[in-house]
Amino acid sequence: MSPPFRMVLVAAFAWFAAPAAAQDLSTEQIYKQLAKPPAAEFRGDKRLTVDQLKRRRDVRIAIPSVDINTINFAFDSAAIPASQRWKLRNLAAAMRRFLRRRPFEVFLLEGHTDAVGSRAYNQTLSRRRAASVRRTLIDYFNVPPRALETDGYGEDFLLIPTSRAEWRNRRVTVRRITDIIRPQY
Question: CATH no. for residue 111?
């Protein structure tokens, strides 16, 4: 039997994002977390392009997020095993709910790695992990490609600070970025 769908909520406050305790999250819980407004207001000329946002950690951490740490990415792998795809079901349902209400919603999928290996390699691997989650959300859960942006941050934002292999650091973080970015119509 597969383990229950588990995620860690991350609450963003000012310059520091602290993970909350791991818990089973329903579609409604994921929706409510991603629906929270950013810690700072971004209007008009303060809005960023997606590329600018990807480079601005100070802004990203002000956006409420959900960490998908239930996908057991194997060491040195971005593959999502077929037996684990179902773990994205509630996330996909929450995303589709946003998109039914506001078709131009945009989500950022941020890939992460542990600290084993070179910085450059981990950067590439983290991007592949985010792309793998994106592909799964599109192919298996009908989330439209236009709603999903990806990037990778390698070993820069470890949940567990260690230079050893640590499965909890191999994750993808999801943020609803619509309220921060310039409209892309």
Answer: 3.30.1330.60
In-domain check, residue 181: no
**Angle, alpha carbons 148-129-173 (nearest 5°):** 60
pTM, full prediction = 0.85
Does some domain include residue 184?
no
**Total number of domains in the chain:** 1
Burial class (CB in 10 A: 0-12, 13-18, 19+), 68: buried
CA 10 to centroid of chain Cα atoms: 10
Total residues belonging to the chain: 185
Q: Are 106 and 180 spatial neighbours (Cβ–Cβ below 8 Å)?
A: no
Its domain, for residue 87, covers 6-176
Residue range 123-155, pLDDT digits in tens: 999 999 999 999 999 999 999 999 999 999 988
What percentage of residues in the chain have a pLDDT greater than 70? Answer: 86
For the chain, the straight-line distance linking the first and the last C-alpha, in angstroms and rounded, comes to 44
Under a CB-based contact definition with an 8 Å cutoff, are residues 113 and 125 in contact? yes
Structural domain includes residue 1: no
